[in-house]
Each structure stands twice: as structure tokens, then as C-alpha cells.
Amino acid sequence: MLFVAFGATVLVPLLIGIDPSVALFTAGLGTLIFHLITGGIVPIFLGSSFVFIVPIIAATQLYGYSGALSGLIAVGLVFIIVSLIIRKKGIVFIKKIFPPIVVGPVIMVIGLSLSSTAVEMSSHNWILASITLITAIIISIFGRRTIKLLPIIGSIIFTYIIAMIFGMVDYSSIISASWISLPNFITPTFSLGAILLIIPVAIAPMIEHVGDMYAISKATGKDFIKKPGIHKTMLGDGLTTIIAALFGGPPNTTYSEVTGAIVLTKLKDPMILRISAITAICFAFIGKISGFLQTIPDSILGGTLILLFGMITIVGIKSIVESTTNLNKTKNMIIAGVMLTIGVGGAVISSGTFSIEGVGLASIVGIVLNLVLPEKEII
Questions:
Q1: Beta partners for residue 355, in sequence order
Q2: Which of 187, 246, 287, 328 has a CA between 20 and 30 Å from the CA of residue 239?
Q3: Residues paired with residue 252 on neighbouring β-strands, in sequence order
Q4: pLDDT greater at residue 378 or residue 53
């Protein structure tokens, strides 16, 4: 279970430029806290979310990473507020504010916004990037059972070995790392600009969280929507995201691939996920692991990201299609079209030190358009 989640959990910190050990620690700690909040009955592992890569990088450039962390704390608070709303008014209220025609384009913008990063990283060595991409595709299509869930870590290991053979790996970070060491924790600093930039991105993982809870309920034959309830599981994501940010880690969100592993392996005991969490925490204090992860060539990471970010875009399209949203409806066409153009086109609203762009701006525009545009078309 840990290795299924391992790929994303360490890729996100590598991409945003922080110590992977911090993410391992906060993912493990967050998972244990989540199980405590939900009564230990939901077989869930919390991992780093790709959704936040673009806003974290943007906020870091403008306000520094410590400032970006205040935005992640705000995301956790949004999750908590939404959990309270769900507890009082039910999940229908949330679905009304965030329908598929808003959530779908948000997810698509996230994938498309990241595409240039994947291509830029791959361009360092297109041969390694291509081998990684092809390997990940082969594992995804032809892999059997649990192996099918490991395209990222599987392709990275395979291509890393090739890079080693041809002398393309710099081992200095492993040599300089201690066997036992503390993760490089970072303290948050308050930044209103970072908060306003990152908060809108919380929409996509909140909706994904609801879908994951339905999926894990179906996989285990238990109704987690009723017990412990969506409000408690979302509260768990919110609190653990805040705690992760306090240590300098990326947001903790419900990890879909682990749900897939549970479906395939039939291992439904939540204790397995708690053991995985404890293992992740132990790994975080082994300095050589962090050193090794930092030796992975950018081109190998880029090869995996071409597939990952493309799949994120497709998930956005699927969320619209599977919801049977009518894209021939003028209102829906306007919402999706405007969101995609603003999100990918580089539109920015700024005033002084404050600015909002990309996913955040597209999310706000989509929510507003959905609320103000009339449902009925005038003929």
C-alpha cells in the first residue's frame, strides 16, 4: 500500500523543491490522525496531491515557500468549513455550488497548466524521458493486479537503472546524507496573497474526496458516507492538511490509487494502512532515502509527468462526460470555455503585492458564472 502511494507522495515535494522526507512524515502522520478522527474504520492513506503543484510553485515564486504554506493552512480551514456545512445542510448543497461543469474544467486546467513543466523537465534528456514514459504506459496497460497500480514508481526504477548503467546519475546527495536525520521542516509565515492564490484550488480535491469515499465504500461493502460520514472524512483531510503545512509539507488528501489497490488485493483492513503510515514516518528519518530520491534525473521525472498530467486532464473531461452534463447547453459551453481560456491562457488579476491567476482565477470565474447565468435559454 505504501509503494502504491509512494510515487505521488515523493514526486510532489521533488517538483516543488522541498525535502521528500517532509512529505513522507506528514503523509504518515496525517494518515494516523485521519484514522483517529474517523474512528479507524476507513481504509485510507493520505498522500500529496498533484492538484496543488501549480499554485504552490506560483505562490513560492511570489511569496516564498513559507508564505505558500499559509495558503495551504487556509485550504485546510476551507475543508473544515465545508465539512461543517455538509454536516448541517448535507452534500447536495456542495454539489450545487461545485457542479461537474465547474469541477471538470478546474481539473483540466490543472493538468494543462502543468504540461509545460513536464515537457521542460523531459527536455533535459529526451531518451530517458521517452523510456520512462513508454515503461509507464506498458505497466498501465499490460500490468497485472497490483503491478498495474505502480506505473510511476515502476517506470522510475527501470529507467533509473538504465541511467546508472550509462553513468547519468549524480550520487553526491546520497554520499552527503546521514543515515539517520531529521526531515528539513519549514515554518509557515503569513501571506494574504498566497492564501488568496491557493484557496480556490481546494475545489477539485474536495469533489475528488467525495468520489473517493463512494469508491472506497463500494470496494469494501461498507457505507462510509453514513458512518463515519462525509463531514468527518473531509474534516480529517482538512485537519491533516493544516498539520502538514505546519511542518512544511504539501497538503494531505485522500489518495485514489490506494483505493484501487484495495479493490485489486481485497485487503480492506484499515490496520494495514496504519502500518503503512508508520512505515512512511520511519522512512522520513532515514536520510539516505531522501538523498537517493534527490538523485533521480529530472528527465526521468519529466517522462512520468507527461503521462500523469495528461491523465489529470482526462479525469476532468471524464467528470463532465460521466455526469451527463449537456455541453450543447449555452450556459455550460460558456462556463467551460471561459474557464479553460482564462486558466491556460495566463490571465492575471493583480493589485499591489496581490495577484491571482491560473487555476485559482479560473475556479472563481467558473463558480460565479454558474451562479449568475440563467438555466433556461432565451429563444
A1: 350
A2: 287
A3: 48
A4: 53
Position of cell 503523509? 27
Which residue's entry shows cell 480535491?
205
pLDDT digits (tens, 9 = 90+) for 308-349: 888 878 878 888 888 888 888 999 999 999 999 998 888 888
Spatial distance between the Cα atoms of 365 and 28, rounded to a whole number of angstroms: 35
**What is the value of pTM for the model shown?**
0.81
Give the start-to-end residue ranges of the domains of the chain.
Answer: 2-325
